[in-house]
Amino acid sequence: MILRKYFFSPLQIVSFGLQASLCLIISGCGASPVDTAHEKFRDWQSKLAERRSFQIRKDWIRQGPEVTNMGFRKINRMSPLLYADAKQGSLLIQANSIDGVVAYQRFSGREVWRLRILNGVESSAALIRDRLFFGGNDGQFYSVEANTGKVIWTFPTRIENLAEPLIEDGVVYFLTGNNSVYALDAVSGKQLWLYTRQDPNPLRVRGGSKPALRNGALILGFSDGYLVALVAKTGQVKWEKQLNRNKKFRDIDTNPLIDGEFVYALGFDDHLYCLRTSTGESVWTSEKGGYGGMLIQGDRLYYASSTSEFMAVNKSTGNKIWSYQLAEGIATSPTMYRGLIVFGESQGGLVFLDSGSGKKVGYFDPGRGILSPPSIDEKNNRVFFISGEANVYALEIGFKYPNAIPYLR
Question: What are the domain boundaries of the chain?
Answer without folding.
Answer: 10-51
